[in-house]
Amino acid sequence: MAVQASPQLIGAPLASFADEARRALERHPEAKLLVFPELHLFGDGMPDLQRNEALRGAAEPLDGPRVDALGALARELGVWLVPGSVCELGPAGELFNTQIVLSPDGTLEGSYRKIFPWRPHEPYDPGSGFTVVDLDGIGRVGLNICYDAWFPETVRQLAWMGAEVILNVVKTTTADRAQELVLARANAIVNQVFMVSVNCGGPTGMGRSIIVDPEGDVIAEAPDASAVLLAADLDLSAVDRVRTQGTAGVNRMWSQFRPGEHPIELPVYQGRIDPATWEPSTPSSESTHRPR
């Protein structure tokens, strides 16, 4: 279940967020996963310099009291909880925009530092790795934050790592949300994965959160920036079905190569596509976590 709402105040206590999460679960008690927008616990409404100082002042390491409290909330609710992303204080004083995943027993099961901060507007240091997490009883999810979705390499990498669902948490306050909706569908189509793009609502954000299936069809979409819950029952077997039968019964991009075909050089990455390693992993064949 995706929750589209306005962010909390920077450094605010978690009590109001906990109440918000409880209300969401009361409306949909069957939910197993609760996802909030990017930086949901960190608000706006101040000049950039003042805001950046406030964000740095509110940053904590992931073993700090904020994540402990969020873990306690996930344990109370008994669901997988993605509270958007948080300001993480890195070991060398870096400021990371970090998405976290908490298990129903309150354990921090995965974290991902945003690789593509929205420059020049955001103060964050970039992350350097990708993360997928296996959610018991649900499937494998890939972590992705806002502007990352504008770079097709990010979703392709997560899909290759076996992600069946990409959780793209967003805080878009500008008119380009219209393009992000196109990107959500395009990323779903070209990688044959579910895309869950959860944007923050008004008055701060543009809203219009969206859930897309592996063929690019919209399962659920918020019509505007109003606070809203999007609830969807995702049949993850659709990923295997679409990849086996083809998008629209035709296109099977992950089965493109034949045995023995030569690698394709990719000079822009100083790397290559190797047909021998092209097909994505599966949740049953890989370990749960990947480096942050």
Could you give a short description of this structure?
This protein is α+β, with helices and mostly antiparallel strands and about 290 residues long.
Descriptive notes:
By secondary structure, the chain is of the alpha+beta class. The chain has a single domain, classed as Carbon-nitrogen hydrolase (Nitrilase/N-carbamoyl-D-aminoacid amidohydrolase, 4-Layer Sandwich). The protein is built from 6 helices and 15 strands. It has a 6-stranded mixed sheet with strand order 7-8-9-10-11-12, with helices on one face.
Task: Name a few traits of the molecule.
6-stranded mixed sheet, Nitrilase/N-carbamoyl-D-aminoacid amidohydrolase, 6 helices, 3-stranded antiparallel sheet, alpha+beta, disordered C terminus, globular, 292 residues
Overall structural class, as computed from helix and strand content, comes to alpha+beta
Count of distinct structural domains: 1
Q: Share of helix among residues?
A: 10-25%
| The CATH H-level homologous superfamily | Carbon-nitrogen hydrolase
> Judging from the principal axes of the Cα atoms, what is the shape?
globular
Biggest beta sheet summary:
6 strands, mixed
Strand tally: 15
Radius of gyration: 19 Å
Q: pLDDT average, as an integer?
A: 92
Give the SSE layout:
Layout: E1 2-4, H1 15-27, E2 33-35, H2 48-58, H3 65-77, E3 80-82, E4 85-89, E5 95-102, E6 108-113, E7 132-135, E8 139-145, H4 152-160, E9 165-170, H5 177-191, E10 194-199, E11 210-212, E12 218-221, E13 228-230, H6 237-245, E14 264-266, E15 271-273
Parallel strand pairs: 2-3, 8-9, 9-10
Antiparallel strand pairs: 1-13, 4-5, 5-6, 7-8, 10-11, 11-12, 14-15
